[in-house]
Amino acid sequence: MMGVVLTVTAVALALAAAGAIIRIARGPSLLDRVLAADVLLAILGAALCIDMAVNRHLNNLMLVVAVSVIGFIGSVTVARFVADRREQPSEP
Amino acid sequence: MNPEPNLVDAVIDAVSAVFMVVGALMSLAAAIGLLRFPDLMSRMHAATKPQVLGLFLLLASVGLQLRTWWVWPVLLVAWIFQLLTVPVSAHMVGRAGYRTKHLHKELLSKDELEAVVQKAAKAARESEADDGGNRTA
Amino acid sequence: MSRRRVSLRQELPLLVWLVIVWGALWQDFSPGNLLFGALLAVAVARLFYLPPVELSGRFNVLRAVPFAVAFLGRVVAASCQVFYLAVAQGPKVTNAVVAVPLRSHSDLMVTATGHVISLIPGSLVVEVDRSTSTLYIHGLNVRNGEDVIKLRKEVRDTEAGLIRIMGTKEELSALNQEVGA
Predict the structure, then answer these.
(1) Beta-strand relationship, C123-129 and C95-101
(2) Rounded to a whole number, what is the distance in Å from the CA of C170 to chain B's nearest CA?
(3) Any bridge partners for residue C96, and if so which?
(4) pLDDT tens-place string over residues B4-26
(5) pTM, to two decimals
(6) Which of residues 93-122 of C touch B (CB under 8 A)?
(7) Strand (E) positions, chain C?
């Protein structure tokens, strides 16, 4: 049964990653790309979790947390940068 | 070995298998939302919410598969961590998106922030010293 | 040191949380490890001083458990709704930005409400006005005035639930008066 589950999840995650990458490539703005990159990291975390569940170990757990932290810090940093760059030209 | 533990094992396996499939589908939902929604804000909805549920389900299936009690606090900490960080990053991106006009006005049925923003911008232009006071719309 | 001393009672939730994180990171909940974690937590809290979070001092567990269960259910509903909207409506979805004034003026309450709101169906905090404690919320699939009213009511209800769990006594009595009136 685990083999079937593994196949289904692998297909779903691969499609999801493909969608996120398409959005990164096509995204009209920087923020769209950041958002899509965040989703891509979440998909990576999901894949790590599935590996842990199927093979019954806990080695990746800190990696999952680290991945979500990287996504958080990355999107917050870029969001601040975008906001700052936008506000400066409007000032007299 | 009596058949009872085997049955329990099978049920736990089935539940965690369902959790894994649904969790992976949630990632797929996020990607579909990213591709199909028209503007940044609605894409943000798609990016944040299925992520939280997906990670919850996957961590739960890890906990079910390992079958030891001490992993549950670890998994809970990992999940709470995500619960605390996801809204913050979504808010930051959303705020930046609103301020940099990444918003399709024709897609909004109502916008109660625009009047406030314009009023604040006007007040800031008129006098530098004016902070707050008349910021409520 | 000239800092304002923080009472141990005020600091206790932070310390307990740090010890739990320590134990979780080591994946070891033996008493010796937890004791060492507690020592480290005290040292960290003393060395890296942060302004204390103003807790109200009351926490209603009986209200918190149903709230947590309802929250989980709404997270599931949120994800399913987003999935459905993405597949069924896609580019035709209509949104709105709605201003919701909150009752409470404490930072903790506004933050908690914002977090919960961001995670439940079709709403996302875009902007916070701290001086008037107003949240500006972006709602997904809000088509008309009726939906706006529904969204606003949902936010206010969420805040009411949080006040019942951990609001101050004044906020609680104000809420009870409002409900009774």
Answers:
(1) unpaired
(2) 24
(3) B110, C139
(4) 678 888 888 888 888 889 888 88
(5) 0.79
(6) 93-99, 114-115, 118-119, 122
(7) 95-101, 123-129, 134-139
